[in-house]
């Protein structure tokens, strides 16, 4: 009887042991499955698989190489919204991200200043930067605007020297040709001065033929009168000589600008004019010195005028205005 009970107790103990072993195996199996699932999630569901992350990385590198800055901006932001520091290319792209956005802030500051100095400073700080091409284009545009403001042959020439392949080179060359066509020669300025002097000498001498030779066939204005006829100018001259006086005009400080209008060159003139009046009864012997030389006569009145005139290509006056 005792032997039978012992056998039953041993059998029960073995069964319990086997049950515990089975339970342990089941628990270990569950742990292994859980770890496997965690590994699978980590590899494939932590914001994208390694293959997806590499594709994103390659796209970002392509945007950088192509300087596709808008796409680079979006792709970098999307990457860091999706992947964490465990991603394979995280550190490399974090460095790219910081460089890109720091430079973009510098560029926005330089661009808002809208000066060539700020753009040049940006290019010095970021000589191989993301915005180098954009900065060069902006500097090109600002430099040409500066040349247009100066509007001189030398300014356009300097622009072309700085930007031989610039966006506005053709337009700059056109401006240079236009300026060259209206460049005033020494001979032209001399001819303008001689015409003005001849006109006022004729006016002082009351010489209708001489004064007519200095005037264009159509005169737009003459000393306060619009569209005058020759008779109007003759009357003005004769009235000037109605009193017993002698007049001498002196043309000074002549400044001439050559311009093109309707396919023809015109000469805009600014000058100073002195009107000296002498007594008509004055004799040259009155100013004779003891040594026989002549002393310059003294005018009884001097008037000072500022004048503007326009002469046509034939060096004839089409407009004349005097102001005291």
Provide an overview of this structure:
By secondary structure, this protein is α+β, with helices and mostly antiparallel strands. It folds into 3 domains: 50-109, no CATH class; 131-181, no CATH class; 186-323, Nuclear Transport Factor 2, Chain: A. It contains 11 helices and 6 strands. It has helices at residues 2-44, 50-65, 69-82, 90-113, 116-125, 132-150, 153-162, 169-181, 186-205, 208-212, 230-240, and strands spanning 221-222, 225-226, 245-261, 264-279, 301-311, 317-323. It has a 6-stranded mixed beta sheet, with helices on one face. Helix 2 (50-65) packs antiparallel against helix 3 (69-82), helix 5 (116-125) packs antiparallel against helix 6 and helix 6 (132-150) packs antiparallel against helix 7 (153-162). It is rod-shaped and about 155 Å long.
In short:
By secondary structure, the protein is of the alpha+beta class. It has 11 helices and 6 strands.
As a percent range, the share of helical residues equals 55-70%
Q: What proportion of the residues form beta strands (DSSP E)?
A: 15-25%
Q: Give the number of DSSP strands.
A: 6
Strand order in the largest sheet: 2-1-6-5-4-3
Q: Could you spell the SSE succession in H and E letters?
A: HHHHHHHHHHEEHEEEE
Number of helices: 11
Q: By helix and strand content, what is the structural category?
A: alpha+beta
Output the radius of gyration.
48 Å
Oligomer: single chain
Number of domains: 3
Average pLDDT level: 85
How many strands, what sense, and barrel or not for the largest sheet?
A: 6 strands, mixed
CATH architecture tag of the largest domain = Roll
Q: Segments where pLDDT lies below 50 for 5+ residues?
A: 41-47
* CATH class membership of the largest domain: Alpha Beta
Q: What distance lies between the first and last C-alpha atoms, to the nearest angstrom?
A: 154 Å
Shape: rod-shaped
The CATH topology name of the largest domain reads: Nuclear Transport Factor 2, Chain: A
